[in-house]
Amino acid sequence: MIPERKYSAIIVAGGKGYRVGGELPKQFISIGGKPMLMHTIQAFYDYDYRVRIIVVLPEGYKPLWQQLCDEYRFAINHTIVYGGETRFHSVKNGLSLISDEETVCIHDAARPFVTSGLIGRCFDIAFNDNCGVIPVIDEVNSVRRLTEKGSEIANREELKIVQTPQAFPAEQLKAAYNTHYLPVFTDDASVAEISGIKIILTEGEESNIKVTTAFDIELAEFYLKYLSKR
């Protein structure tokens, strides 16, 4: 008998994200009539309602989140854990609730438009190939590399823009995170790669934007209106 796959998602919403403006961390700001974090959780539930969802919140924000869930009657089951000093520490806190036999996706709360297709592809590759998998898109801008003398042209064909979700066999990722924080740990793949985990790239999605600034909030509102008219 083939054992049932065990999937989990850690949604990282542990930062304050004040660059969007206002007093609320960006994950609680409303887009399309409800907080952005709810859109992100919904995306994983829509992929498969059986996926276990862990949400990493900033320290002390659980009461506000519970208030928002009550206000918007948001009932998708999820578990809350508090974040840490950096994204690395927040993910590590989330991984403490994940069992070794699971396949886990780590996803930024500020990417509310991730599709079921991308989630499923990341889970499947990680499970079938027993490796880490990260979605990437092409760099379309001209880019330059900083040097001691100033800067120089860089070949954009050699560059990729990294997105989330990033998926891994949980046992491997938990072992990788059993280390001290380094400034180069900007995402989960950077932690995994240093520990020797094989990383496979898969095609990301242009629509899988990361909401970081006030302009991104406006863009997200526009995109939701576009989706509602399709």
From TrEMBL:
First-tier enzyme category under EC: transferase
TM ranges: none
Site note Transition state stabilizer, residues: 19, 26
A Pfam short name: IspD
Keyword Transport belongs to the record: no
Gene3D superfamilies listed in its UniProt record: Spore Coat Polysaccharide Biosynthesis Protein SpsA, Chain A
GO molecular function, one term: 2-C-methyl-D-erythritol 4-phosphate cytidylyltransferase activity
Residues flagged as site, Positions MEP for the nucleophilic attack: 156, 210
GO biological process, one term: isopentenyl diphosphate biosynthetic process, methylerythritol 4-phosphate pathway
Lyase as UniProt keyword: no
EC number: 2.7.7.60
Reactions catalysed according to its record: 2-C-methyl-D-erythritol 4-phosphate + CTP + H(+) = 4-CDP-2-C-methyl-D-erythritol + diphosphate
The entry's keywords: Isoprene biosynthesis, Nucleotidyltransferase, Transferase
Listed InterPro entries: IspD, IspD/TarI, IspD/TarI_cytidylyltransf_bact, ISPD_synthase_CS, Nucleotide-diphossugar_trans
Pathway, per record: Isoprenoid biosynthesis; isopentenyl diphosphate biosynthesis via DXP pathway; isopentenyl diphosphate from 1-deoxy-D-xylulose 5-phosphate: step 2/6
Family: Belongs to the IspD/TarI cytidylyltransferase family. IspD subfamily.
Function field: Catalyzes the formation of 4-diphosphocytidyl-2-C-methyl-D-erythritol from CTP and 2-C-methyl-D-erythritol 4-phosphate (MEP).
HAMAP family noted in UniProt: IspD (MF_00108)
Protein name per its UniProtKB record: 2-C-methyl-D-erythritol 4-phosphate cytidylyltransferase
Protein's organism: Fermentimonas caenicola
